[in-house]
């Protein structure tokens, strides 16, 4: 274990078990799993665990992460989850086997890039079924079909959809029926069979549990369920998975008794918000050495008894520790469970050590 704080302690075995259960449950419904690595910045041990439990592909939204994954030589195909940037197309076709696309223009640009790099590439055409992030609106696929028909190096692998990412739109059996249907139409327009019908991410597992994923759907792209056992879109812990798979440990740098109300007059805090305080009298407070630069503080749940979070600035996490059973002192460590947003930030902070055991 490392001796530098803050660090994120990751229970690899718990993540492995989650991966096994997700892969097994999906396989029973004829669904292959793309293991999504962006939540942990494509950490090598976690990506290898995803590969070893039977994920069929590794996905990430950042080309930089996928370049790292490629060097791991897992043998699995790599999927770019964010529509490529025009400025990164060369790296995309040289690194990834597939990417998600949402325009005919992108297909043509990928085709050109492949021609000059001597590469081939597959695309999954994204369909927007209501979440209002990327994708063709409903079934407007004729234009992309003709761009694909003109492409020799870019082939369509299939269709895909996102739920619960921007607008919080939930997956439903009807929406997935629609996706399968759009896939069939595109297949007819292209004149070759599509391999992939990708029915969403962790939030689609709720439908899988109820047996409501239509037969044509054969892929899900899963990050949160494997990494945390959580489903933020439906606001639930997934009952057949393990939670609390990782803990943030931060070190106490101040412990002091202070009133719970600040002294005015008041302006905004360091982030432009005007905070509100409740008068609870004089309380024992502590400062932990971690802050908004490293983590989404609202996504932390204290794991150390008697500790609650009062707020944070960029480098200081302010805690109420009045009720801690054992008085905290300088150098003590306090622990927190991160949610997806907190994990995402922690995994990419250069100040936070990743400690996988
Ligand atoms: C992040 C991402 C996923 C994985 O989502 P989870 O909720 O973590 O399972 C799937 N698809 C796309 C396009 C993504 O960006």
Walk me through what this model shows.
By secondary structure, the chain is of the alpha/beta class. 28% of the residues lie in helices and 26% in strands. It has 10 helices and 19 strands. Helix 7 links the parallel strand 8 and strand 9 (196-198). The model has no long low-confidence stretch (mean pLDDT 96). The chain binds pyridoxal-5'-phosphate. Pyridoxal-5'-phosphate binds at residues 36, 38-39, 61, 81, 162, 201-202, 221-225.
Q: What's the arrangement of secondary structure elements?
A:
Layout: E1 7-10, H1 12-27, E2 32-36, H2 44-52, E3 57-60, H3 63-72, E4 78-80, H4 89-95, E5 98-101, H5 104-117, E6 121-128, E7 136-137, H6 142-149, E8 154-161, H7 173-190, E9 196-198, H8 205-209, E10 219-222, H9 224-228, E11 230-231, E12 236-237, E13 246-259, E14 282-288, E15 300-302, E16 308-312, E17 317-320, E18 333-338, H10 340-348, E19 353-356
Parallel strand pairs: 1-19, 2-3, 2-10, 3-4, 4-5, 5-6, 6-7, 6-8, 8-9
Antiparallel strand pairs: 1-13, 11-12, 13-14, 13-18, 14-17, 15-18, 16-17
Bound molecules: pyridoxal-5'-phosphate.
Pyridoxal-5'-phosphate (PLP) binds next to strand 10 and helix 9.
């Amino acid at each position: 274990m490392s001796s530098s704080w803050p660090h994120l302690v990751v229970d690899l075995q718990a993540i492995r078990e989650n991966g096994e259960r997700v892969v097994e449950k999906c396989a029973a419904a004829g669904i292959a799993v793309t293991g999504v690595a962006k939540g942990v910045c494509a950490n090598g041990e976690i990506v290898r665990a995803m590969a070893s439990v039977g994920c069929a592909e590794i996905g990430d939204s950042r080309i930089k992460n996928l370049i790292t994954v490629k060097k791991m030589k897992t043998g699995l195909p790599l999927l770019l989850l964010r529509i490529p940037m025009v400025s990164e197309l060369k790296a995309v076709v040289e690194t990834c086997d597939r990417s998600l696309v949402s325009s005919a223009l992108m297909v043509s640009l990928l085709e050109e890039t492949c021609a000059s790099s001597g590469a081939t590439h597959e695309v999954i055409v994204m369909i927007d079924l209501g979440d209002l992030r990327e994708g063709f609106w409903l079934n407007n696929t004729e234009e992309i079909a003709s761009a694909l028909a003109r492409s020799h190096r870019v082939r369509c692998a299939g269709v895909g959809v996102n739920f619960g990412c921007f607008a919080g739109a939930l997956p439903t059996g009807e929406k997935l029926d629609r996706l399968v249907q759009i896939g069939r139409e595109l297949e007819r327009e292209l004149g070759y069979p599509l391999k992939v019908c990708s029915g969403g991410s962790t939030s689609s597992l709720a439908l899988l549990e109820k047996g409501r994923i239509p037969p044509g759907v054969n892929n899900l792209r899963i990050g949160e369920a494997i990494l945390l056992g959580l489903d933020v879109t439906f606001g639930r812990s997934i009952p057949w998975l393990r939670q609390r798979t990782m803990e943030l440990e931060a070190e106490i740098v101040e412990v002091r008794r202070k009133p719970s109300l600040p002294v005015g007059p008041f302006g905004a805090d360091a982030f432009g918000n005007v905070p509100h305080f409740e008068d609870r009298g004089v309380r024992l407070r502590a400062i932990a050495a971690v802050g908004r630069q490293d983590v989404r503080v609202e996504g932390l749940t204290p794991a150390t008894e008697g500790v609650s979070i009062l707020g944070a600035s960029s480098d200081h996490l302010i805690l109420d520790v009045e009720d801690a059973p054992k008085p905290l002192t300088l150098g003590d460590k306090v622990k927190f469970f991160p949610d997806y947003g907190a994990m995402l930030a922690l995994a990419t902070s250069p100040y936070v050590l990743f400690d996988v055991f």
